[in-house]
Amino acid sequence: MRSRTRQWSSAIAAAAVLILSAAQGQQPNGTVQAAPGPDTQIPSSQPGESGLAEPVALIEARRYPEAAQKINAYLQSNPGSAAAHFLMGYLLYRQDKPRESLAEYTSGARFQNPGVNDLAAVAMDYVLLHDYSDADKWLTEATTRSADNELYWYYLGRVKYVENHFDEAIEMYHKCLALSPHDLRAEYNLGLAYAGAGRMEEARTAYQTAIAWQQSSGVQDPQPYLDFGMMLVQHGKPAEALALLQKAVALGPQNPRAHEQLAQTWKQLHNLPNADAEMQAAIRLAPEISTLHFEMGRIFQLEGLTAKAKDEFARCSALNATHSTDSAQTPNLPPPD
Predict the structure, then answer these.
(1) Of 281 and 5, which is predicted with more confidence?
(2) Alpha-carbon span 239 to 151, nearest angstrom
(3) Contact yes or no for 220/251 (Cβ under 8 A)
(4) β partners of residue 251
């Protein structure tokens, strides 16, 4: 993206690590919401108060306890500083404390209206709380105030997708792509939204476009291969999906979801040894996911390995009894940036 984009977007770029993490499980259309890449730096739209320059630098260096100490000291002398409250809110967000973060943003708003980056960071707090309605509200406000910021449209598209508002998500991604042509993640998320809306040929085109872009740019993101492959499998085309899912595993060997989906594809193609190997790879990466053990048990049954199948089903039951429902969702890990 353009350097100007990095400057105004950095307030919310840190949110990219966890944004829509809840959406990494199965969506209604069976696709996977891709997780954006690692976080970047503190916003370059820094507070205009000289006393906050040092904590800004500390946050940038991820020295969070020291930054908190400096901001608290500043607030003791300047309790009415909206900028200090907003900065503390951002720091707490970076520490995965969305409720505390929102409280600080609320405190700052008593003295000054928050800026557009602040609103976007507030939206990310609501994403972490799985409150997508409020996340939608504040990202919509951010796009209204700053319609030329492509990342706001991108994140709003992500939220719309989680809310199952697929047609609106499609619109958001098109707005993002109009501002940032060849934005790879916007393009393959557009594919997800088209698939969610049942527009499979348009989804296919979006995935193929994203794959073509990264082949010519040197970017290696496994997600479009994974999402495209999953869509094909779900529509009864495992043979066509196989090469895509193999590529997803090759590019993201530490992603248990990719191994799981490749295992399921091999099973549909009646290649049980390869299905066995891939499902075991997924379990090694995510041993606490109950559905992986269940699927491993089914593969063992097909292989005639009754005792092993029984062990896997027992493991699945034990995990379901002692873990939350999250234990059934195979993680979809982002690739290295």
Answers:
(1) 281
(2) 36
(3) yes
(4) none
Residue 62 is classified by DSSP as: T
Give 32's DSSP letter. B
Nearest 10 degrees: Cα torsion 190, 192, 193, 198: 130
Tokens of 72: 């608290």
Q: For every residue of 79-104, which 3-state class applies, written as one string?
A: CCCHHHHHHHHHHHHHCCCHHHHHHH
Length of the chain: 337
Please list, residue by residue across 289-304, b when 16 or more beta carbons sit within 10 angstroms of its beta carbon and e when fewer do. bbbbbbbbbbbbeeee
pTM of the model: 0.82
Token duo for residue 46 = 């820094």
DSSP code of residue 14: G
Token digits for 261?
Answer: 């989906």
pLDDT tens readout for residues 303-320? 999 999 999 999 999 999
Tell me the domains of the chain and their CATH numbers. 248-337 (1.25.40.10)
Which helix or strand (DSSP H or E) is residue 320 part of?
helix 306-322
**Residue found under tokens 């527009």:** 199
26 backbone dihedrals φ, ψ, rounded to 5°: -70, 130
How far is the CA of 7 from the CAs of 42, 58, 63, 101, 140, in angstroms? 10, 18, 21, 22, 20
Instruction: Measure the CA–CA gap between 137 and 173, rounded to whole angstroms.
Output: 17
**How far is Cα 109 from Cα 333, in angstroms, rounded to an integer?**
35
Spell out the residues 6+ positions from residue 266 whose beta carbon is closer than 8 angstroms to its own.
242, 272, 274, 275, 278
What residue type is 54 in one-letter code? E
Instruction: State residue 322's pLDDT score.
Output: 86
